[in-house]
């Protein structure tokens, strides 16, 4: 993809018992507001039938998915659900954290503790797993940068499909490469100033526009404290019972 950042297949990983997650079914990315005609055609060719937009309603209005209605796909969104913020996690960090890498890193680690339990995310994560159990065709999950909310949901997917924790983390960290952050950093800093009136130095921008193992680990720690385990969260909070989990694994493991 030339006009959609961080677009990739998050299938293909090997599971702990030697199976493989199906490829060509699970896709993830940043927003699609600037999707070109060529990239729209590629999306149309991938067999995607369900799009899960993890952004808040104001984010969707600022950067709409330009091809969604034209392709006639099923869209899962938050609708008009009331939320405490209208911005992506990395924008919140830039607005609220002390300038510099250390302060913003601390903000992101703390924020990841809350992400799994925000009502909007719980609602969309639940509907996503139900779609995996019952819908036909591929699925695309995305947010604004395709790294935090999207990365968390992809990690839950890999956990449910019994991908090894090291591989789950490797896929999460691929956003730092697939997002082409270093090459795009000057333009991203200019865009933050123009769109959000945020002035940020290079170190701070890189900290919030990339992902780190400590971010995802923070979410895991919060889940362990509140739910006992990731399995407990998936069952008790997301409503993915044993039958549904078995159905998803039967559909997508080879």
UniProtKB/TrEMBL annotation:
<comment type="similarity">
    <text>Belongs to the protein-tyrosine phosphatase family.</text>
</comment>
<feature type="domain" description="Tyrosine specific protein phosphatases">
    <location>
        <begin position="119"/>
        <end position="155"/>
    </location>
</feature>
<dbReference type="InterPro" id="IPR016130">
    <property type="entry name" value="Tyr_Pase_AS"/>
</dbReference>
<dbReference type="GO" id="GO:0004721">
    <property type="term" value="F:phosphoprotein phosphatase activity"/>
</dbReference>
<dbReference type="InterPro" id="IPR026893">
    <property type="entry name" value="Tyr/Ser_Pase_IphP-type"/>
</dbReference>
<protein>
    <submittedName>
        <fullName>Protein tyrosine/serine phosphatase</fullName>
    </submittedName>
</protein>
<dbReference type="InterPro" id="IPR000387">
    <property type="entry name" value="Tyr_Pase_dom"/>
</dbReference>
<dbReference type="InterPro" id="IPR029021">
    <property type="entry name" value="Prot-tyrosine_phosphatase-like"/>
</dbReference>
<dbReference type="Pfam" id="PF13350">
    <property type="entry name" value="Y_phosphatase3"/>
</dbReference>
């Amino acid at each position: 993809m030339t006009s959609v950042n961080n677009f990739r297949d998050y299938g293909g990983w090997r599971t702990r018992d030697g199976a493989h997650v199906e490829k060509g079914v699970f896709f993830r990315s940043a927003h699609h507001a600037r999707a070109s005609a060529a990239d729209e055609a590629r999306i149309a060719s991938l067999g995607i039938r369900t799009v899960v937009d993890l952004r808040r309603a104001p984010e969707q209005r600022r950067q709409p998915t330009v091809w969604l209605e034209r392709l006639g796909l099923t869209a899962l969104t938050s609708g008009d659900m009331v939320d405490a913020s209208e911005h992506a996690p990395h924008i919140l960090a830039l607005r609220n954290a002390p300038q510099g890498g250390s302060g913003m890193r601390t903000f992101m680690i703390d924020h990841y503790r809350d992400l799994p339990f925000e009502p909007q995310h719980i609602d969309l994560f639940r509907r996503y797993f139900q779609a995996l159990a019952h819908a036909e065709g591929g699925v695309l999950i995305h947010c604004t940068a395709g790294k935090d909310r999207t990365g968390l949901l992809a990690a839950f997917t890999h956990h449910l499909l019994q991908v090894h924790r090291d591989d789950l983390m490797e896929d999460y960290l691929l956003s730092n490469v697939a997002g082409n952050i270093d090459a795009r950093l000057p333009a991203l800093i200019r865009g933050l100033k123009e769109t959000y009136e945020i002035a940020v130095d290079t170190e701070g921008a890189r900290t919030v526009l990339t992902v780190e193992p400590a971010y995802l680990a923070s979410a895991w720690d919060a889940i362990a404290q509140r739910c006992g385990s990731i399995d407990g969260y998936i069952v008790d909070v997301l409503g993915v019972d044993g039958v549904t989990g078995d159905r998803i694994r039967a559909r997508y493991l080879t």
